[in-house]
Design goal:
There is one protein chain. This protein is α+β, with helices and mostly antiparallel strands. The chain has two domains: 92 residues, Nucleic acid-binding proteins (OB fold (Dihydrolipoamide Acetyltransferase, E2P)), CATH 2.40.50.140; 302 residues, 2-Layer Sandwich (BirA Bifunctional Protein, domain 2), CATH 3.30.930.10. The protein contains 13 helices and 16 strands. The strands form three sheets. The chain has an eight-stranded mixed β-sheet with strand order 6-10-11-16-15-14-13-12, sandwiched between helices. α4 crosses α6 and α4 crosses α13. The two termini are 44 Å apart. The model has no long low-confidence stretch (mean pLDDT 96). Bound molecules: 4-amino-1,4-dioxobutan-2-aminium adenosine-5'-monophosphate and magnesium ion. 4-amino-1,4-dioxobutan-2-aminium adenosine-5'-monophosphate (4AD) binds next to β11, β15, β16 and α13. It is found in: Cytoplasm. One of its GO terms (molecular function) is nucleic acid binding. Its main location: cytoplasm. Its EC number is 6.1.1.22. One of its GO terms (biological process) is asparaginyl-tRNA aminoacylation.
């Protein structure tokens, strides 16, 4: 009987049976009598044990000649092994070499520098660590999407090429768009979502966004993925309640589904178990007061730098909402505070452990004249916002939304040193390859 092809993740019901695995040799140890083959197939990792007496001599010799990352088909019997991370081991009865590498695999067991690893990002993705991170990223994205879908938010994709500046004139990737003048890579899908919210009430988009910021920090990418919900008739408070619930949901889903990956990353999950409502709220004014007491020299009115955010979040175990910033440091579309015309109804959600801002959100300015005033104040090209202003012309409505940076969220949940590991192909000011 043919041994069926099973993926490592699906082996449990096949205990005691003969199966075929298709994958790559992750590592190998040998003695004269036995080969221990670490096999990975993308779904998991397993040890294959090949005894010299159990296979034809030429198969044993073929296994001896395997290089790291050789692709193979392996037949064997599934045995329970409590010590194995997958819970199983394979007693190998046959092996076919699909392709043996043409030279030694460049990523070895020794420590490599980060530039070398990033130059080899296409290969580095095969490592156990990178697989753990990208599986958590997949769970984060899946849980965001199902969360929003289940609560009646409609996915409305927004364009990447746009003629209207979404956030501000700083940090734009610009190109010439045929005979139509300048186009930009989207900094946000928000303006389009606001239009879609007028059509469907609750909407979201999820896609890559671009910032030509010259920031060389461990929190900044030039291309990152953002999930952006927008809801009609939500005010500033409704908006924050949604953010809190979404973040708690995502963390809980990762804890439920990604224990082995978190364990592999040696993440202290007790810190994640604490991520339950309610999150603390402070105002911008209070935040500046706290920072100044802690020794920061931030003047009132400035935006927080990375160090300020870290200092501030060290005071809290959970993510903290900082509300109502001065309008001078925020985007043109935010609604003016009803009692303080120098402030806007916005919030930044700052993650614990120094991971900084994971969400930026606001109630949107729904007054036509005020919004127009803000566009003029920030010297944005008024003509390109005519369509956007139509939301305020035809049935203006209170509405709010936010953007959550997927890589910042993944970096925090995984406990990564740097955001670049949270995305398969990181783009920073220094890196466009591979
Ligand atoms: O605060 P931001 O700039 O907000 C917006 O773009 C709004 N239009 C979103 C909305 O209301 N629909 O960005 C939102 C989030 C940040 O909190 C952060 O998590 C992430 O996007 N982010 C970045 N992530 C990685 N690298 C960068 N350079 C980032 N800039 C922002
Ligand atoms: Mg922000």
């Amino acid at each position: 009987m043919e041994a069926p092809w099973i993926r490592i993740v699906d082996l449990a019901p096949h205990e005691g049976q003969e199966v075929t695995l298709k994958g790559w040799i992750y590592n190998k140890r040998s003695s004269g009598k036995i080969h221990f083959l670490q096999i990975r197939d993308g779904s998991g990792f397993i040890q294959g044990v090949m005894e010299r007496t159990a296979v034809p001599e030429e198969t044993f010799q073929a296994a001896k000649g395997l290089w790291i990352e050789a692709s193979v088909e392996v037949r064997g019997t599934v045995r329970r092994d409590e010590r194995a991370p997958s819970g199983f081991e394979l007693s190998v009865s046959d092996l076919v070499v699909v392709s043996n590498p043409v030279e030694e695999y460049p990523i070895t067991k020794k420590e490599h520098g980060i530039d070398f690893l990033l130059d080899n990002r296409h290969l580095w993705l095969r490592s156990h660590r990178q697989q753990a991170i990208l599986k958590i990223r997949d769970r984060v994205i899946l849980s965001c999407r199902t969360y929003l879908h289940d609560r009646g938010f409609l996915l409305v994709d927004s364009p990447i090429l746009t003629g209207s500046i979404g956030e501000g004139a700083d940090g734009l990737f610009e190109l010439d768009y045929f005979d139509q003048g300048k186009a930009y890579l989207a900094q946000t899908g928000q303006l389009y979502l606001e239009a879609a919210a007028a059509a469907y009430g609750r909407v979201y988009c999820f896609g890559p966004t671009f910032r030509a910021e010259k920031s060389k920090t461990r929190r900044h990418l030039t291309e990152f993925w953002m999930i952006e919900p927008e809801a009609a008739f939500f005010d500033h408070k409704d908006n924050m309640a949604l953010q809190e619930d979404l973040v708690c949901h995502v963390v809980a889903q990762v804890l439920e589904h990604c224990r082995p990956e978190l364990a592999f990353l040696e993440r202290d999950t007790s810190l994640l178990e604490r991520i339950v409502p309610p999150f603390p709220h402070i105002t911008y004014d209070e935040a500046v007061g706290i920072l100044q007491k802690l020794g920061s020299d931030i003047p009132y009115g400035d935006d927080f730098g990375g160090d300020d955010e870290t200092l501030l979040t060290q005071q809290f175990e959970k993510p903290v909402f900082v509300e109502c910033y001065p309008k001078g440091v925020k985007a043109f579309y935010m609604k003016q505070h009803p009692e303080r015309e120098d402030l806007v109804l916005c919030d930044d959600l700052l993650a614990p452990e120094g991971y900084g801002e994971i969400i930026g959100g606001s109630q949107r300015e729904d007054d036509l004249d005020r919004l127009l005033g803000r566009i003029r104040e920030q010297k944005l090209p008024e003509e390109s916002y005519s369509w956007y202003l139509d939301q305020r012309r035809f049935g203006s409505f209170p509405h709010s939304g936010f953007g959550m940076g997927i890589e910042r969220l993944v970096a925090w949940i995984c406990g990564l040193q740097h955001i670049r590991e949270a995305i398969p192909w990181p783009r920073t000011i220094y890196r466009i390859h591979p």
